[in-house]
Amino acid sequence: MSDIAANGAAPNIHFAAALQDFLRRCPAYQTTSHVDALRAEDYARLDRLGHVYLDYTGGGLYAASQVSAHQEMLLNNVFGNPHSQNPTSLAMTHLVEETRDAVLRFFNASPAEYTVIFTPNASGALKLVGESYPFEADGRYALLYDNHNSVNGIREFARARGAIVDYVPVSLPELRAPTARVLAALEQADRRRHNLFAFPAQSNFSGVQHPLDWIDAAHARGWDVLLDCAAFTPTNRLDLSHVHPDFVPLSFYKIFGYPTGVGALIARYDALAKLHRPWFAGGTITITSVQGDGWHALIPGAAGFEDGTVNYLALPAVEIGLHHIERIGIDAIHTRVIALTSWLLETMTALHHSNGARLVHIYGPENTDARGGTIAFTLVDPTGEPFDFRRVEAAAGARKISLRTGCFCNPGDGEIAHHLSREEMACYFTGKAPSSFYEFYDLLHTATGKTPSTIRVSLGLASNFADAYTFVQFLTEFVDRRADELPWAPEPTLAAIRQRDAA
Description:
Layout: H1 13-25, H2 33-42, H3 44-48, E1 52-53, H4 64-75, H5 87-106, E2 114-119, H6 122-132, E3 140-144, H7 149-152, H8 154-160, E4 164-168, H9 179-186, E5 195-200, H10 214-220, E6 224-228, E7 247-251, H11 252-256, E8 263-268, H12 269-272, E9 285-289, E10 294-297, H13 315-328, H14 330-349, E11 360-363, E12 374-379, H15 389-398, E13 401-402, E14 404-405, H16 411-417, H17 422-426, H18 437-448, E15 455-458, H19 465-476, H20 494-502
Parallel strand pairs: 1-13, 3-4, 3-5, 5-6
Antiparallel strand pairs: 2-8, 7-8, 9-10, 11-12, 12-15, 14-15
Helix pairs in contact: 4-13, 5-13, 6-8, 14-19
């Protein structure tokens, strides 16, 4: 594996020199040495199996101690469905409510202002808001081009009820939305109507961190605010005593890896009171009748929005995961990730072919000002031809480097990054739709000559310098190579395509 042994053996002199140079340039990294000890114990499988994991925005990694603590809890207790008053149900109810309280504490959210609704994931939380928000004629749904598809999807609820959908573009080269443009969109609100503004605290495409003071600006202009924090919270502190969005969707596996299948909507009570479920389910009502043809809702609050039985055996693992992050320190994770990101950005942008052309074209900021540890880029050969993302991913996979390619469920950023126009995109939605992203990619390239070939690496709590160094060594293998020289990657299976599209 280039200059670092795959089995975790001692690195050679080139690595040692690079490490010393990195520590000299990023001295704050050394304050996070306790994370190196943690990696050696709780994440030892990474080095034992020779993996370089660079897909933390796709999913966090779980610690061995998290799994062990959860297993011990399950094996030494008897838990039942919490929707009852028997001893095993009450024991589980207590743990569910403990977890709810732990989430509020972790984000410093006042229980007098916020409540926690458990969902399957961040997308489930977003769907809950979309289907329940009182969109209406002349009301508005405003959002950035830079949003995950689960946020984009809320536009379908808004349009179905006659609301105006207004996208705010991002601009090259850094893929930021100018605050003046955002404020101009917010000024369009009719205060007599319901208006919802949605944006990500951190882009899952470019790593850009958008200004959180937009929240107060939106409130002052008559908007409710949905702050997508799925990509932000794994490596940044979200303090809900300082910023006060109305809706905060989360996926816990993004933060600490385990468990999957559990997310949350942190909601302000005032905003939650505006939501109206379009249906009812088990657990969301006090009583219903078939013959009486009616139903009564639960008292407003979290329980009225948690459909059926929550994933109750997994919920204690959420509290375990939160305690795990607290022991490490979210500020330490942030310091570590920013140091590694800074080195990666500087080193990647310094890679050139012999003719002077840059190897790496980065989409987003090339420094760490108001950005996180997610880097989107394209590799370009000496003639200016982009390397096909499928070939790069296959080459990385052969070296046990896990990165991500495609559009990352963020089409707005991708369209701007690759200079795709409204007309060039609209034609794919007027007839037979492409059956997969790969088919779309090939059709678009044939029609326009453009190659929206995006690669993404992202850093997280268990990342270390060896991961970043090994990845850069991998990139150097593309210096002075032509794009058509790289072996063709096999087409993924249908199951792999579905898994990618769902990520």
